[in-house]
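Something for you to look into today, if you have time. Could you write out one complete protein record for me, on any chain you like? The space below this message is yours for that.
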Amino acid sequence: MADLGEFCIDKHEATQEEYEKFLVAVGTTPSGAQPVGCQANSSFHPNDHCAGYFQPQTKWNHAVGCVDWCDAYAYCKWAGKHLCSSVSGQVLTAQTFEDYSASQWGYACSNGGQTDYPYGATLQPQNCMSTVDSAPVGSYAQCTGLAVPFNQVFDMVGSVAEWIDYCDVNQGCALMGRLDTPNDKPSSCTANTYALKLTASETTGIRCCL
């Protein structure tokens, strides 16, 4: 993890190999209490969302996708971490989840609130992965922050979008760092979309905070 002072954040998205270790440890079927809205989550396995997607033997260092919010929450909890939330420890809100100073995810992406992209002030789409699952995590050396400690954090934009610990009762839960479709260009540190807690696709991934 990268130590950003107020908190720590994973240097890259959870990989298929890391997620496989979670499945081996806890099993593919959830047991015990799950968060509100996750009671219908019947499997942690990515292939139950996207048939044939999960290939940890050959794509061990690729970002895991095809995980819903409940899977991501459980993975981070198992790893002794949590989905990225607020810098202050308060609950994120509709007003703060995009705020670079309030959101752990946004703070890490924006070089502590200084830039709209991890690599600088203006869009440079070639710097980051524009096709989901096309390369191992950390392959794009320019898709990182400008200086220590932010330059230890990779792939905050592009690649898979990352669930955070903010959900809206009407719209669903927030995914940050998404690709700007239909152009498939890595977006800014505030680019986000919403999806229901049990939604999973090849574009939905995990990054944890601590």
Notes: The first strand starts at residue 2 and ends at 3. Residues 16-26 form the longest helix (11 residues). Residues 1-210 form a domain with the paralog of FGE (formylglycine-generating enzyme) fold (CATH 3.90.1580.10).
